[in-house]
Amino acid sequence: MRPLAVIGNVNVDLILGPAEPWPKAGTEIIVDHDELRVGGAAGNSALAWQALGVDFQIAANVGSDEFGRWLRQSFGTHAETWPERPEGTTLSVGITHPDGERTFFTTRGHLPRLSLTDVLTVLDGKRLAGGYALLCGCFLTDDFTADYSAFFDWADSHDIAVALDTGWPLDGWTEANKQATRGWLARSSCSIMNEVESTTLTGLSDSVDAARALKRQMPEGAIVVVKRGPDGAIGIDADGTLVSVAAPKVTVVDTIGAGDVFNAGFLAALAAGEPLSLCLEAGTRIASQAISTLPRNYGGPLSLKNGEAVR
Question: How many CA atoms are closer than 13 Å to the CA of 154, on its beta-carbon side?
Fold first, then answer.
C-alpha cells in the first residue's frame, strides 16, 4: 500500500441540535444532542483513517489553550511534533437541523498561522515517497496557502502525488480564488471536490461536464472526483474513463464532515491499488456509514474487494 498523509485544517467542533425553527434573538431553546469532537477537513479525514486502521501522517497546528491540548491528545503520536501557536484554537459551533444539514459559526483562531515550515517539520518526506498527500482547508490556512508553490515543489521532489480538496472559499468563488485554484489543480494528481464546488468553479451546471473541465486543467494522467452527496460520486480515471457509483440509502443523522470521510475511504482504496470504481464505492460506503450513525461509526477496518483489510 502506498503511504498517505493529510495536510490542512484541524480544529474543534461543538455540535448542537437539531434546531427548528431557528430561535428568535434573545431566546433560548433546548436541543436533544451535543457533541464536542475533532473537526476540520484534515481532522475528519485523519479520524476516519484512524478508525479504518489505515497508517497515515498528518501535518497541522494547534492553539495555545485547552482545546489545543485536547486536539493534540486526540491524535496521540501523530501530533507530537505539531507546532503550537499563541492564538486560541479555532472553534466551530455547528447547529444541526432536522434534515441533517447544518449551520456553522467559526472563529479564525490558529488555522491561518499554519506555515510551510510547520508542515515540512511534521511530514517525513522519505516515508511518504511514492504516496498520496491530501491537501485541504486551502482557504483557511493563510500562511501555508501563500507558499503552496514551494509545497508542490517539495512534493514533486519526493514523488508524492497531491490530492486536492479546496473546500469552499470564505469569500466565495471570486475570480482571484478561481485563478488560485486553477494553479493548484495544474500541479495536483487528483482533484476531490463536491458537486457545488466543481460546477461553481468551472461555471458549468452539469457535474460530468465540470469534471471533464477540471481534468483539462490538470497534468496528464490526473484523476478527477466529484462528490454528489446522496447521489453518490463520479470520477474520471487517468485514461479519461468516466465512472459513476450510487450511494447507499441511509437515514441521515449528521452530514458534518461527510466529504472528508469520503476522501479518507477513497484515498485508502486508491493507495491500495484498487480501480477507480472500487475507490469511489469505498468513499461513498464509509461516508454513508458515518453520517447515519450516532455516535459516529466508520464500519471498522476497510475491507476491499480482495478481502484484505487496508492497514
Answer: 16
Whole-number Å distance between alpha carbons of 91 and 178: 27
Summarised one tens digit per residue, pLDDT across range 159-176 is 999 999 999 998 999 999
Query: What span, in angstroms and rounded, lies between the C-alpha atoms of 74 and 106?
Result: 20
Q: Which three cell numbers stand for residue 121?
A: 517539520
Q: Read off the pLDDT of residues 213-246 as tens digits, 9 standing for 90 and up.
A: 999 999 999 999 999 999 999 999 999 999 999 9
Asked if the structure places residue 17 within a domain, the reply is no
Task: Give the residue numbers spanning the domain of 200.
Answer: 4-10+39-90+109-291
Give the phi and the psi of residue 280 in degrees, each rounded to 5.
Answer: -65, -40
Return d(Cα 219, Cα 39) in angstroms, integer.
31
d(CA 55, CA 201): 33
Question: What is the domain count for the chain?
Answer: 1
Q: How far apart are CA 270 and CA 139, in angstroms?
A: 26
Strand 11-17's sheet: what is its strand order? 33-39, 11-17, 91-96, 102-106
39, amino acid identity: G
Residue 252 CB burial class (10 angstroms; 0-12, 13-18, ≥19): middle
CA distance 124 to 59: 10
Q: pTM for the whole thing?
A: 0.93
Q: How far is CA 204 from the centre of its chain?
A: 23
